[in-house]
Amino acid sequence: MEPLILTRKAMIVAGLKYRGKNRQGEVRELWQRLSSRAAEIQHQSSGGSYGVMGHYEQPFGGMGNYDPSYGDFDYLAGLEVDSSDDLPAGMESWEISEQTYAVFVFPLRDIGAAYRYIYQEWLPASPYQRAETPEFEFYPATFDPGDEGSEMFLYVPIRPR
Question: Which of 33, 50, 95, 120 is the 20 to 30 A CA-CA neighbour of 74?
Fold first, then answer.
């Protein structure tokens, strides 16, 4: 699994936030709630949806908003918007600055293995280190969460070592 290295322009993602350990499928539940409320989000600018992980170094030993002693992390399930004005009640927006990313594509069923490979094998052997900015999952409009073979994209922020 070799990534595509690219620079992604700045964007704003608006949606629902979760903070916790995701031990009981809370992130999946968050996506279900977003699905039922997505039409409330104004100023949508592109197809697909984003799962944004807050500012932490990596899921296997972190920094920033990831608390390794408790395992808590922030996750925003949302849509790209042109403006964060007029957000629906209970929603928030995160601004993500322009950044260079290693972009990995894999089927949903391989999400755990993909994260392990990226952070335990690919990144340590690469000429890059993780940049201290959010990473995100991108789910294209054709993505079907009920189909384990549906492809998703993981954007890992990087910078040269």
Answer: 120
